[in-house]
Design brief:
mainly alpha; 8 helices; 0% strand
Length: 240
């Protein structure tokens, strides 16, 4: 039972570090880019897309090693590849070098740019009409976050899957997921072709349901909290 319980939390430490740093970088960059683009009088959806895509690309690149560590810890079985977070950093640096921390970065950025662009453009489009409905506790922001997350996640999921599969390549590949991780060639498109060849087109959407179940409530809480915090900060500035 102890092993069973721990299995649900594998990779939780690097995941928490990732969420904190990624969220801080994402929202600060989004606000900064939005403020830079606003004087250009671009269409609102284009401004939101560019701001979201830029914020996503910057946050993903800067926090990618944590994303890779989260995936590798989650993919460990009873044969533990890494015993601790610091140990994993030392092992990857020794056996794979700096590039080892960025396995699958191309797929990661390729996925997050359209994802965050679609997410923020959809969110900012849905938020005003939902706000007029006067939902309890200001939950219009949460509903907009759910709808934006589901649509964006579904659209770019194949790239997300490719990113995770590339992250567990390398010299320790055969020790992840009970030795069931296939060997993929380098590059996004080559990996995609190999997945389709082995598993069919549905192989690119394996785990989509679980991904949506995770992403939808997370986006709801994130956007509701973001809007409330932003509102409090603006109110404080006005009062000062």
């Amino acid at each position: 039972m102890k092993v069973f319980d721990q299995g649900f939390w594998k990779g939780n430490v690097p995941a928490e570090l990732l969420y904190i740093t990624y969220g801080a970088l994402q929202f600060s960059t989004y606000r900064l880019i939005s403020q830079v683009l606003h004087p250009l009088s671009l269409p609102s959806q284009l401004e939101n897309f560019v701001s979201g895509a830029t914020a996503g690309a910057a946050a993903t690149t800067l926090t990618y090693p944590l994303d890779l560590l989260r995936t590798r810890f989650a993919a460990q079985g009873l044969d533990r590849v890494y015993n601790s977070l610091l140990g994993s950093v030392r092992d990857i640096a020794r056996s794979e070098g700096v590039p080892g921390f960025f396995q699958g970065l191309g797929a990661g950025v390729g996925q997050i740019v359209p994802y965050m662009g679609l997410f923020f453009s959809t969110y900012e489009t849905l938020r005003p009409p939902l706000k007029e409905l006067s939902l309890p506790l200001g939950s219009g922001d949460a509903v907009a976050g759910i709808l934006a997350s589901v649509s964006a996640k579904t659209g770019v999921f194949p790239l997300d899957l490719i990113r995770k599969r590339l992250q567990v390549q390398g010299p320790t590949r055969e020790r992840f997921a009970g030795g069931m991780v296939p060997l993929y060639g380098s590059g996004i498109w080559r990996t995609a072709r190999e997945i389709v060849g082995r598993e069919g087109w549905r192989g690119l959407y394996k785990g989509l349901g679980v991904g949506l179940v995770k992403a939808a409530p997370a986006s709801a809480v994130t956007m509701w909290t973001y809007e409330k915090a932003l509102g409090l900060l603006k109110e404080r500035q006005v009062n000062e």
